[in-house]
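User: Could you check the structure of this?
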Amino acid sequence: MADHDLVIVGMGSGGMPAAEFAASLGLRVAVVERSRVGGDCLWTGCVPSKALIASAKVAHHLRTAERYGLPSIEVPPIDTGAVWARIKSIQQSIASTDDDPARYDDLGVKIVMGDATLVDGTTVAVGERLLSTKYVLLCTGSRPAEVPIPGLAEVGHLTSEVLFELDRLPDSITFIGGGPISLELAQSLHRLGLRVAVLDRGARILPRDEPALAERLQEILRAEGLDLRHGVTVDRVTVESGQKVVHATGADGVAFEVAAAEIFVGAGRAPNVEGLGLEALGIETTAKGITTDDRGRTAVKTVYAAGDVAGRFLFTHAAAYEAVRAVRDIFFPGKGTWNATIPWCTFTDPELAHVGLTEAEAREQHGDDVHVWSMELGHNDRARADGTDEGLIRIITGPKGKVLGGHILAVGAGELIHELAVAEKQGMSISELAGVVHVYPTVGTSVAMLASESLFDSAVRIRRLTRFLTP
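Assistant: Sure, the predicted structure tokens are below.
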């Protein structure tokens, strides 16, 4: 008889909720973790980056206080060591409470420290120790992808795994890659007074998001003073006069150089599949991650994979959703299909949030039945009062007015997007969304105002009938 019902490999964004859910079912659960409980989200990703964003936003407000009728303050050079100390204190607070290994031990979850290798579909080796189990769930996550740039390995560089391990920052950083991680960090560090440049090979930022909103965000970042360049090919990296120099070619074909004290590489993620013994078991992997079906099962039906290592959506909330659904499917077969639309948000200031289809994707699927409803935040009373009216809300509808997608560029967009996620998930029409009474004054009122436009359009079409309906 197996010693465990479930062995989970990795105790990060996917492994922790999966372990807690499995324990709540009364299962015998063990989790193998090679480093620290909490994973990338706590130590190198979501938590430290959002703490950084909060500090940087305060510095920005001090410098721009005249927008609120207050005297602006000339912010002195910022001690990034103090900012980093605050970040680390927040991490430790979470690590000693919600993510405390002792809490999981009290739940009945056995934590085993070390590197895991699958011997077969029901045996996991951790060093010389063998864990026998009925099922295995792989939640090993991902890491910053390496890029083959001549000279980069010799010069050295920062990644998200390294940045928050520092005690303080250099005075200048060149970012290679313009994805969400780079944009969030670059804007924040620019606000803290660092000299920052972002070199992106794409034609615009955030290509998976609604183009009009991404382009607006791009304009806002540049207006704030962020050096953001597109269509850039990085040719090589050298060290000159104590500075790390990126030699690149711009979209116009003209060569240029950017020198800084440090280089940050944010060019995507790579799944953590090495050393797990997957190939020997016939479990297929690609550059994106482990191949699974829509229930999280690999080619070995007792082995599941979820989160970043499964390569669908590289978000903390997606990892938690997939891992818990995988546990559900393992012990209640057929009940754990990954069928939810995953919203996401880039936490720049303002934030850019997304759920469902973009306009282009909707038109490809539904043709002329697609309607786009857009509203500038300049029409929102709360946004005006808060001085945060630079933004846009866009709702995409299809046949019968069904909500197919939602896109929000606004302060707090990550909070606002959930209403549109529910509407998309439940198959609501925009007229049904208009029937939800919203608190005034809030930025969320714009969702109601936008949805109400569909009712006004209907009213215009039927107004000729009203004279027959009145006495």
